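can u do me a favor
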């Protein structure tokens, strides 16, 4: 049987390491399942999911030029059935729901006038510029003759 990428095969776990598992997929061929391809959840200990001797279905991810076969257990699993999500009410922090209707309310820190907006911009700009000067000692050194 010729293996192709995307094919689902059944194999027997022959070895477990801290980075993945090795599986015999028949006809003298074996492949490896990386730890990230063992389960749909985070895998801290592979032994919690598979044991040596287990027969599992795996999907062929890659067949290298050197003959190495990459497999995935999680991609061979049936897709999880998800219940349709209920329509969620959209809420915005700047538009809270009050008495069943949406009303726009400005954020408390939002400036009300052009002058306040400019002052706020200048303040944040100065803060960012001073942070840059602290992190980059070259920015502090200016050539006095170059500015003239």
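np, heres the sequence
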């Amino acid at each position: 049987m010729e293996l192709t990428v995307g094919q689902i095969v059944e194999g027997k776990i022959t070895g477990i390491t801290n980075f993945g598992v090795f599986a015999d997929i028949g006809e003298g061929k074996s492949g490896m399942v990386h730890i990230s391809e063992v389960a749909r959840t985070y895998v801290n200990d592979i032994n919690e999911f598979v044991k040596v001797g287990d027969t599992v279905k795996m999907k062929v991810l890659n067949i290298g030029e050197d003959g190495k076969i990459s497999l995935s257990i999680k991609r061979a699993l049936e897709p999880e059935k998800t219940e349709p999500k209920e329509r969620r009410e959209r809420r915005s922090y700047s538009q809270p729901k009050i008495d069943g209707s949406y009303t726009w309310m400005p954020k408390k820190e939002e400036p009300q006038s052009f002058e306040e907006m400019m002052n706020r911009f200048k303040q944040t700009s100065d803060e960012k510029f001073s942070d840059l000067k602290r992190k980059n000692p070259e920015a502090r050194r200016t050539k006095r003759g170059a500015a003239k």
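The helical segments are 114-135, 137-140. hope that helps!!
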